[in-house]
Protein backbone atom coordinates (compact mmCIF):
# COMPACT_ATOMS: atom_id res chain seq x y z
CA UNK A 1 0.00 0.00 0.00
CA UNK A 2 2.88 2.37 0.74
CA UNK A 3 4.23 1.87 -2.77
CA UNK A 4 0.81 2.64 -4.25
CA UNK A 5 0.53 5.82 -2.19
CA UNK A 6 4.06 6.84 -3.13
CA UNK A 7 3.35 6.32 -6.83
CA UNK A 8 0.17 8.38 -6.51
CA UNK A 9 2.04 11.22 -4.85
CA UNK A 10 4.77 11.10 -7.46
CA UNK A 11 2.08 11.44 -10.12
CA UNK A 12 0.02 14.04 -8.25
CA UNK A 13 2.89 16.47 -7.63
CA UNK A 14 3.89 17.11 -11.28
CA UNK A 15 0.24 17.11 -12.38
CA UNK A 16 -0.56 19.72 -9.71
CA UNK A 17 2.36 21.86 -10.86
CA UNK A 18 1.17 21.55 -14.45
CA UNK A 19 -2.37 22.53 -13.45
CA UNK A 20 -1.04 25.52 -11.52
CA UNK A 21 1.09 26.63 -14.47
CA UNK A 22 -2.01 26.42 -16.68
CA UNK A 23 -4.38 28.24 -14.34
CA UNK A 24 -2.00 30.98 -13.19
CA UNK A 25 -2.05 33.05 -16.45
CA UNK A 26 -5.84 33.11 -16.32
CA UNK A 27 -5.91 34.14 -12.67
CA UNK A 28 -3.27 36.80 -13.33
CA UNK A 29 -5.29 38.20 -16.24
CA UNK A 30 -8.47 38.36 -14.14
CA UNK A 31 -6.57 40.04 -11.32
CA UNK A 32 -5.05 42.66 -13.64
CA UNK A 33 -8.40 43.31 -15.35
CA UNK A 34 -9.92 44.24 -11.99
CA UNK A 35 -7.25 46.84 -11.16
CA UNK A 36 -7.02 50.51 -11.95
CA UNK A 37 -4.13 51.77 -14.03
CA UNK A 38 -2.60 53.36 -10.94
CA UNK A 39 -2.85 50.14 -8.90
CA UNK A 40 -1.22 48.16 -11.69
CA UNK A 41 1.69 50.58 -12.02
CA UNK A 42 2.30 50.61 -8.26
CA UNK A 43 2.26 46.83 -7.86
CA UNK A 44 1.34 44.62 -10.80
CA UNK A 45 1.54 41.35 -8.84
CA UNK A 46 -0.56 42.31 -5.84
CA UNK A 47 -3.99 40.75 -5.42
CA UNK A 48 -6.79 43.25 -5.92
CA UNK A 49 -9.41 43.61 -3.21
CA UNK A 50 -12.08 45.17 -5.44
CA UNK A 51 -13.95 44.06 -8.54
CA UNK A 52 -13.85 46.82 -11.17
CA UNK A 53 -16.14 45.93 -14.08
CA UNK A 54 -15.65 49.31 -15.73
CA UNK A 55 -12.43 48.06 -17.36
CA UNK A 56 -14.38 45.32 -19.12
CA UNK A 57 -17.06 47.74 -20.29
CA UNK A 58 -14.36 50.15 -21.51
CA UNK A 59 -12.65 47.39 -23.47
CA UNK A 60 -15.98 46.28 -24.98
CA UNK A 61 -17.15 49.74 -26.03
CA UNK A 62 -13.92 51.49 -27.00
CA UNK A 63 -12.93 49.59 -30.15
CA UNK A 64 -16.21 47.99 -31.22
CA UNK A 65 -15.81 44.59 -29.60
CA UNK A 66 -19.44 43.77 -30.35
CA UNK A 67 -18.73 44.00 -34.08
CA UNK A 68 -15.57 41.92 -33.75
CA UNK A 69 -17.49 39.31 -31.76
CA UNK A 70 -20.13 39.08 -34.48
CA UNK A 71 -17.45 38.76 -37.19
CA UNK A 72 -15.81 35.89 -35.30
CA UNK A 73 -19.15 34.19 -34.75
CA UNK A 74 -20.05 34.35 -38.46
CA UNK A 75 -16.67 33.12 -39.67
CA UNK A 76 -16.25 30.37 -37.07
CA UNK A 77 -19.78 28.99 -37.53
CA UNK A 78 -19.49 28.90 -41.34
CA UNK A 79 -16.02 27.33 -41.21
CA UNK A 80 -17.01 24.61 -38.75
CA UNK A 81 -20.11 23.65 -40.76
CA UNK A 82 -18.06 23.31 -43.95
CA UNK A 83 -15.27 21.44 -42.18
CA UNK A 84 -17.67 18.90 -40.67
CA UNK A 85 -19.49 18.37 -43.96
CA UNK A 86 -16.37 17.95 -46.10
CA UNK A 87 -14.38 16.12 -43.44
CA UNK A 88 -17.09 13.57 -42.70
CA UNK A 89 -17.65 12.88 -46.40
CA UNK A 90 -13.95 12.47 -47.05
CA UNK A 91 -13.50 10.34 -43.93
CA UNK A 92 -16.32 8.02 -45.01
CA UNK A 93 -14.92 7.68 -48.52
CA UNK A 94 -11.33 7.07 -47.42
CA UNK A 95 -12.21 4.59 -44.70
CA UNK A 96 -15.07 2.55 -46.15
CA UNK A 97 -15.15 2.95 -49.93
CA UNK A 98 -12.69 0.99 -52.02
CA UNK A 99 -11.28 2.96 -54.94
CA UNK A 100 -7.92 3.29 -56.61
CA UNK A 101 -5.64 5.88 -55.07
CA UNK A 102 -7.44 6.16 -51.75
CA UNK A 103 -4.28 5.48 -49.75
CA UNK A 104 -2.31 8.07 -51.72
CA UNK A 105 -5.12 10.58 -51.26
CA UNK A 106 -5.15 9.95 -47.52
CA UNK A 107 -1.39 10.43 -47.32
CA UNK A 108 -1.78 13.66 -49.26
CA UNK A 109 -4.27 14.87 -46.66
CA UNK A 110 -1.85 13.93 -43.90
CA UNK A 111 0.90 15.89 -45.65
CA UNK A 112 -1.26 18.98 -45.33
CA UNK A 113 -0.88 18.74 -41.56
CA UNK A 114 2.81 19.53 -41.89
CA UNK A 115 2.43 22.69 -43.98
CA UNK A 116 2.26 25.76 -41.71
CA UNK A 117 0.29 28.78 -42.79
CA UNK A 118 3.44 30.94 -42.77
CA UNK A 119 4.82 28.96 -45.72
CA UNK A 120 1.85 29.69 -47.99
CA UNK A 121 0.83 33.04 -46.51
CA UNK A 122 2.26 35.34 -49.22
CA UNK A 123 1.10 33.43 -52.35
CA UNK A 124 -2.27 32.75 -50.72
CA UNK A 125 -2.77 36.43 -49.94
CA UNK A 126 -1.96 37.33 -53.56
CA UNK A 127 -4.42 34.75 -54.87
CA UNK A 128 -7.12 36.01 -52.53
CA UNK A 129 -6.45 39.59 -53.61
CA UNK A 130 -6.63 38.66 -57.31
CA UNK A 131 -9.97 36.90 -56.76
CA UNK A 132 -11.39 39.78 -54.65
CA UNK A 133 -11.70 37.57 -51.57
CA UNK A 134 -9.49 39.68 -49.30
CA UNK A 135 -11.46 41.37 -46.54
CA UNK A 136 -14.53 39.19 -47.08
CA UNK A 137 -16.20 36.53 -44.95
CA UNK A 138 -15.98 33.84 -47.68
CA UNK A 139 -12.26 34.48 -48.11
CA UNK A 140 -11.43 33.87 -44.46
CA UNK A 141 -13.81 30.90 -44.29
CA UNK A 142 -12.07 29.26 -47.26
CA UNK A 143 -8.67 29.82 -45.65
CA UNK A 144 -9.83 28.25 -42.39
CA UNK A 145 -11.32 25.28 -44.23
CA UNK A 146 -8.15 24.73 -46.25
CA UNK A 147 -5.95 25.00 -43.16
CA UNK A 148 -7.91 22.73 -40.83
CA UNK A 149 -9.47 20.26 -43.29
CA UNK A 150 -6.49 17.82 -43.20
CA UNK A 151 -6.86 17.46 -39.43
CA UNK A 152 -10.61 16.93 -39.80
CA UNK A 153 -10.18 14.30 -42.52
CA UNK A 154 -7.53 12.48 -40.50
CA UNK A 155 -9.67 12.25 -37.38
CA UNK A 156 -12.88 11.32 -39.19
CA UNK A 157 -11.09 8.67 -41.28
CA UNK A 158 -9.55 7.15 -38.15
CA UNK A 159 -12.92 7.08 -36.42
CA UNK A 160 -14.86 5.63 -39.35
CA UNK A 161 -12.31 2.83 -39.66
CA UNK A 162 -13.50 1.56 -36.27
CA UNK A 163 -16.98 0.90 -37.73
CA UNK A 164 -17.26 -2.73 -38.93
CA UNK A 165 -17.46 -3.21 -42.66
CA UNK A 166 -20.45 -5.49 -42.15
CA UNK A 167 -22.57 -2.51 -41.11
CA UNK A 168 -21.92 -0.83 -44.45
CA UNK A 169 -22.56 -4.05 -46.40
CA UNK A 170 -25.86 -4.63 -44.58
CA UNK A 171 -26.99 -1.11 -45.37
CA UNK A 172 -26.15 -1.58 -49.05
CA UNK A 173 -28.06 -4.88 -49.13
CA UNK A 174 -31.09 -3.05 -47.70
CA UNK A 175 -31.05 -0.86 -50.80
CA UNK A 176 -29.22 2.22 -49.55
CA UNK A 177 -27.07 4.13 -52.00
CA UNK A 178 -23.64 5.43 -51.03
CA UNK A 179 -25.20 8.73 -50.06
CA UNK A 180 -27.89 6.88 -48.09
CA UNK A 181 -25.25 4.95 -46.16
CA UNK A 182 -23.44 8.19 -45.39
CA UNK A 183 -26.59 10.04 -44.28
CA UNK A 184 -28.43 7.25 -42.44
CA UNK A 185 -25.53 5.20 -41.02
CA UNK A 186 -22.22 7.05 -40.93
CA UNK A 187 -23.42 10.45 -39.74
CA UNK A 188 -25.33 9.10 -36.70
CA UNK A 189 -22.52 6.70 -35.79
CA UNK A 190 -19.94 9.44 -36.21
CA UNK A 191 -21.62 11.87 -33.82
CA UNK A 192 -18.93 11.59 -31.08
CA UNK A 193 -16.12 12.31 -33.53
CA UNK A 194 -18.10 15.05 -35.27
CA UNK A 195 -18.75 16.75 -31.95
CA UNK A 196 -15.10 16.51 -31.00
CA UNK A 197 -13.80 17.77 -34.33
CA UNK A 198 -16.38 20.54 -34.41
CA UNK A 199 -15.36 21.82 -30.97
CA UNK A 200 -11.64 21.63 -31.73
CA UNK A 201 -12.02 23.39 -35.08
CA UNK A 202 -14.18 26.07 -33.49
CA UNK A 203 -11.44 26.69 -30.93
CA UNK A 204 -8.75 26.73 -33.63
CA UNK A 205 -10.65 29.27 -35.72
CA UNK A 206 -11.70 31.38 -32.75
CA UNK A 207 -8.15 31.67 -31.38
CA UNK A 208 -6.50 32.37 -34.72
CA UNK A 209 -4.80 35.74 -35.19
CA UNK A 210 -2.40 35.44 -38.14
CA UNK A 211 -4.80 34.16 -40.80
CA UNK A 212 -7.50 36.56 -39.69
CA UNK A 213 -5.10 39.49 -39.73
CA UNK A 214 -3.87 38.68 -43.24
CA UNK A 215 -7.28 37.95 -44.75
CA UNK A 216 -9.28 40.66 -42.91
CA UNK A 217 -7.04 43.75 -42.73
CA UNK A 218 -9.75 46.43 -42.45
CA UNK A 219 -11.04 47.52 -39.05
CA UNK A 220 -14.70 46.72 -39.85
CA UNK A 221 -13.99 43.06 -40.61
CA UNK A 222 -11.60 42.21 -37.80
CA UNK A 223 -12.22 39.12 -35.72
CA UNK A 224 -12.30 39.26 -31.94
CA UNK A 225 -8.73 38.07 -31.46
CA UNK A 226 -7.38 40.64 -33.93
CA UNK A 227 -9.49 43.27 -32.19
CA UNK A 228 -7.81 42.39 -28.90
CA UNK A 229 -4.38 42.94 -30.44
CA UNK A 230 -5.50 46.34 -31.72
CA UNK A 231 -6.63 47.13 -28.19
CA UNK A 232 -3.07 46.57 -27.06
CA UNK A 233 -1.84 49.16 -29.54
CA UNK A 234 -4.48 51.72 -28.61
CA UNK A 235 -4.07 51.28 -24.86
CA UNK A 236 -0.39 50.49 -24.66
CA UNK A 237 -0.12 52.12 -21.24
CA UNK A 238 -3.49 50.86 -19.95
CA UNK A 239 -2.73 47.22 -19.25
CA UNK A 240 -5.88 46.59 -17.16
CA UNK A 241 -8.08 47.55 -20.12
CA UNK A 242 -6.04 45.30 -22.41
CA UNK A 243 -6.31 42.45 -19.88
CA UNK A 244 -10.08 42.98 -19.87
CA UNK A 245 -10.11 42.57 -23.66
CA UNK A 246 -8.11 39.35 -23.38
CA UNK A 247 -10.59 38.11 -20.78
CA UNK A 248 -13.54 38.90 -23.06
CA UNK A 249 -11.96 36.90 -25.89
CA UNK A 250 -11.12 33.99 -23.58
CA UNK A 251 -14.56 33.60 -21.98
CA UNK A 252 -16.18 31.69 -24.92
CA UNK A 253 -13.22 29.29 -25.07
CA UNK A 254 -13.35 28.69 -21.32
CA UNK A 255 -17.10 28.02 -21.45
CA UNK A 256 -16.63 25.47 -24.25
CA UNK A 257 -13.87 23.65 -22.37
CA UNK A 258 -15.78 23.77 -19.11
CA UNK A 259 -18.98 22.18 -20.40
CA UNK A 260 -17.69 20.03 -23.27
CA UNK A 261 -14.31 18.79 -22.07
CA UNK A 262 -15.49 15.19 -21.77
CA UNK A 263 -16.91 15.18 -25.30
CA UNK A 264 -13.61 16.54 -26.63
CA UNK A 265 -11.60 13.82 -24.88
CA UNK A 266 -14.03 11.02 -25.80
CA UNK A 267 -14.14 11.99 -29.46
CA UNK A 268 -10.37 12.26 -29.84
CA UNK A 269 -9.81 8.98 -27.99
CA UNK A 270 -12.42 7.20 -30.11
CA UNK A 271 -10.84 8.46 -33.31
CA UNK A 272 -7.36 7.34 -32.31
CA UNK A 273 -8.11 3.70 -31.47
CA UNK A 274 -7.60 2.52 -35.02
CA UNK A 275 -6.16 3.99 -38.20
UniProtKB/TrEMBL annotation:
<dbReference type="InterPro" id="IPR035906">
    <property type="entry name" value="MetI-like_sf"/>
</dbReference>
<protein>
    <submittedName>
        <fullName>Carbohydrate ABC transporter permease</fullName>
    </submittedName>
</protein>
<feature type="transmembrane region" description="Helical">
    <location>
        <begin position="239"/>
        <end position="260"/>
    </location>
</feature>
<dbReference type="Pfam" id="PF00528">
    <property type="entry name" value="BPD_transp_1"/>
</dbReference>
<keyword id="KW-0472">Membrane</keyword>
<feature type="transmembrane region" description="Helical">
    <location>
        <begin position="104"/>
        <end position="125"/>
    </location>
</feature>
<feature type="transmembrane region" description="Helical">
    <location>
        <begin position="193"/>
        <end position="219"/>
    </location>
</feature>
<dbReference type="GO" id="GO:0055085">
    <property type="term" value="P:transmembrane transport"/>
</dbReference>
<feature type="domain" description="ABC transmembrane type-1">
    <location>
        <begin position="69"/>
        <end position="260"/>
    </location>
</feature>
<comment type="similarity">
    <text>Belongs to the binding-protein-dependent transport system permease family.</text>
</comment>
<dbReference type="GO" id="GO:0005886">
    <property type="term" value="C:plasma membrane"/>
</dbReference>
<feature type="transmembrane region" description="Helical">
    <location>
        <begin position="68"/>
        <end position="92"/>
    </location>
</feature>
<feature type="transmembrane region" description="Helical">
    <location>
        <begin position="137"/>
        <end position="156"/>
    </location>
</feature>
<keyword id="KW-0812">Transmembrane</keyword>
<dbReference type="InterPro" id="IPR000515">
    <property type="entry name" value="MetI-like"/>
</dbReference>
<keyword id="KW-1003">Cell membrane</keyword>
<keyword id="KW-0813">Transport</keyword>
<feature type="transmembrane region" description="Helical">
    <location>
        <begin position="9"/>
        <end position="28"/>
    </location>
</feature>
<keyword id="KW-1133">Transmembrane helix</keyword>
Amino acid sequence: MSRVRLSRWLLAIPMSLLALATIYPLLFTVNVAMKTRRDYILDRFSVTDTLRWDNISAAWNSVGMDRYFLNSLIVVTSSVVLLLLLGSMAGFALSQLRFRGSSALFLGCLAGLFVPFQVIMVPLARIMADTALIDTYPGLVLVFVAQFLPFTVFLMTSYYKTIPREVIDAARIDGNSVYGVYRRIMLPLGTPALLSVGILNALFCWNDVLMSLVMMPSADHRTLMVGVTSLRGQYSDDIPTFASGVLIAAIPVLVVYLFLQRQIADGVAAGSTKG
